[in-house]
Amino acid sequence: xxxxxxxxxxxxxxxxxxxxxxxxIAWWWFLVLLxxxxxxxxxxxxxxxxxxxxxxxxxxxxxxxLLMAAGWYLHKDVVYxxxxxxxxxxxxxxxxxxxxxxxxxxxxTHLGDIGKQ
Length: 117
Hints:
Elements: H1 2-23, H2 27-33, H3 48-58, H4 61-74, H5 77-95, E1 101-102, E2 105-109, E3 112-113
Antiparallel strand pairs: 1-2, 2-3
Helix pairs in contact: 1-5, 4-5
């Protein structure tokens, strides 16, 4: 089952490459911005519940798709790009097994525990 999820996420990631290409922005911006959502991990300094809430907010596909749709509809390239980056990042995280976090700690995700079992 995990391989099917990884394949699906890879498809989402490829789709974001196409969406980003449509903006006409230089590709190096995609590479620079791709890891930016991981800054949300800093919220774990305030405890696992706050950390999980902030991390999950910035790694939720619903937010990414909402921003992409709003950016497209309102002709706001910055909003569209932010949504595209969030979707690309979330998909890449899920390919590597990093899911949305439970309140019990960073290593506990909806895709299973991270690290050695």
